[in-house]
Write a structure and sequence with these properties.
This protein has helices at residues 2-10, 17-48, 52-55, 68-74, 76-87, 92-109, 113-131, 138-178, 180-196, 201-207, 212-232, 234-246, 254-259, 265-281, 301-316, 324-351, and strands spanning 59-61, 64-66. It is mainly alpha-helical. It folds into 2 domains: 2-167, no CATH class; 179-351, no CATH class. The radius of gyration is 22 Å and the shape is globular.
């Protein structure tokens, strides 16, 4: 046992919730952002501004034509796997081998591919780390083992994992359509909390393919956290804090939340209010990339995702046109309501002595 512990320590193989549930999951979201999400944004910009270079195919692979954005989106599996490998400290040979593993697990996982990539890339990466530099022919053995394990697991597990993730996502979306008020509260609160915690709400939404009305509720919850914290902490953090939290991440407040959990009351209650407003009143839907549902106002990716969905729906005939009511709903849910409601609830918390000056000051 001591030898095994020494071996795992030497290989930097750490079995922990933080490494797999926080570091790897967060990295996966970054991989998605740099591939699928950016590809979607590039395609939207190209089509809306009629930029020929972005709308015309730049490559034909296997008979399929790809635009610049299409190429970026097609690399989502490899991008996620490499990001995960980097998060779990894979050495170069293992990291590069995960490109193939990511492509295989994402492709075989179907719409639930991100969840497949998360599990399989972690296992293949850790196995690769264990074998790395243990033989004199490392340049052959390490990639062979890493890719072999990853592709084998992809063939064995990815379809089932993908279907399971899709099923869970479908149930959440079905329940939201059936009970938009209650599910609007629940989805908005849970995803919003995930965004502020050191885990990835974007990766969760991507893994579950959370779109439609449930995606709109998720977006509302994320915006409540980001805009809420940005506005109510403005006296302490001024413009720098407003920008870093409002279009960056509310995760910056995690240290302050640990010190005084009551500062989290206002954003959480706000998400429980704006969630059902999004689902019941404005029927706000995320029909763009699922990862956008968990991005909130980060780089305005959530709002771009909603807009992309509108454009796609209009192109397919599912939606007649983008209306003023659509824009009003998106702006209210994303920016105005979180700012106003969260500030009012925070004022009440301050009057009750739960929140004091300096409680939300960023280091």
């Amino acid at each position: 046992m001591e030898k095994l512990k020494a071996f795992l320590k030497r290989k930097d193989i750490v079995f922990s919730a933080k490494r797999y549930g926080i570091d790897a999951l967060g990295a996966m979201a970054q991989g998605l952002f740099c591939s699928l999400l950016i590809g979607t944004i590039i395609n939207t910009i190209g089509s809306q501004f009629h930029i020929a270079f972005l709308t015309n195919p730049v490559a034909t692979i296997g008979g399929a034509e790809y635009t610049v954005g299409g190429l970026a989106s097609a690399m989502s599996g490899p991008a996620m796997a490499v990001a995960i490998g980097n998060a779990i400290h894979c050495p170069p040979m293992v990291l590069y081998s995960l490109i193939t593993v990511g492509f295989a697990s994402n492709a075989l996982g179907g719409a639930g591919g991100p969840l497949s990539v998360l599990f399989i890339a972690i296992i293949a990466g850790e196995v690769g780390k264990a074998i790395s530099k243990e033989t004199k022919v490392d340049i052959l053995v390490t990639p062979l083992v890493t890719i072999g394990v990853g592709v084998a697991l992809s063939a064995w597990w990815a379809p089932a994992l993908g279907k399971a993730a899709m099923k869970v996502g479908d149930i959440i979306m079905w329940a939201t359509e059936l009970q938009p008020f209650l599910m609007g509260i629940l989805v908005s609160l849970v995803v919003g909390v995930a965004l502020t915690l050191p885990i990835s709400s974007a990766a969760i939404c991507a893994a579950l393919s959370l779109t439609g009305l449930a995606g709109g509720a998720a977006l509302a919850g994320c915006c409540a956290q980001m805009v809420g914290f940005a506005v109510m902490s403005f006296p302490e953090n001024k413009w720098g804090g407003l920008i870093s939290q409002g279009i960056g991440t509310s995760m910056l407040q995690m240290g302050n939340i640990v010190r005084n959990p009551r500062i989290w009351i206002a954003p959480c209650v706000t998400s429980m209010i704006t969630g059902p407003i999004a689902t019941c009143i404005f029927r706000l839907q995320m029909n763009g990339a699922a990862v956008s549902s968990g991005m909130g106002t980060c780089g305005l990716v959530g709002q771009i995702g909603v807009y992309t969905g509108w454009v796609n729906d209009v192109a397919s005939g599912a939606k007649a046109a983008i209306t003023a009511a659509d824009w009003i709903g998106l702006i209210l849910v994303s920016f105005i309501l979180p700012a106003v409601i969260c500030s009012l609830i925070n004022m009440l918390c301050r009057k009750m002595g739960w929140v004091k000056d300096g409680d939300m000051t960023l280091a």
